[in-house]
Amino acid sequence: MARRHGIPRRIVGFHRDEAGDWVAELECGHGQHVRHDPPWRNRPWAETEEGRRGKLGARLRCRRCLEEGEDRPAAGALRRVNRS
Q1: Helix (H, G, I), strand (E, B) or coil at 20
Q2: Torsions phi, psi of 16, nearest 5?
Q3: Which is more confident, 13 or 41?
Q4: I need a surface site. Which of 27, 39, 52, 66 has the fewest CB within 10 A?
Q5: Tell me, what DSSP letter sits at residue 57?
Q6: pTM score above 0.85
């Protein structure tokens, strides 16, 4: 996978931010918003508990890992329980 858009990381959980938007918790400990905002972002799965649960273990590209030069998950990377 090309790394210019981020390093692939598994989703380990979800939480809502201060504005109420869903954030995927990644295995590296970073978070990434998973908004359903058509036509720019088409993520209807983010709107339901079942949809989010179905994405646990899926990979998203972590831009923060790329920016910080983290090429692999740190030992003992943060693991969270799905809090949908």
Answers
A1: coil
A2: -95, 145
A3: 13
A4: 39
A5: T
A6: no
